[in-house]
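Homework help board

Subject: predicted structure for assignment chain

Our instructor gave us this sequence and asked us to write out the predicted structure in token form, then describe one feature. I got the tokens but I'm not sure how to describe them. Can anyone check?
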Amino acid sequence: MFAFWEDDGQDDHDADLIRGGPNSDLSLTQARLNFKSFGASEERFLESVRAPREEEK
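My token output:
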């Protein structure tokens, strides 16, 4: 689950590529790292996301 990440078909085999489009200048790998670190694909979205529920951790 990625806060404010649009599924564009990118997957593990090309996760390091930056495709542009709906996910801007982020690779899937970077968005995953960001989500793990602070709970959103980008810091600018933090005000719009909730903390994960216990069952989502």
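Reply (TA_rk): Your tokens look well-formed. For the description, you could write something like this. The chain has one helix and no strands. That's the kind of observation they're looking for.
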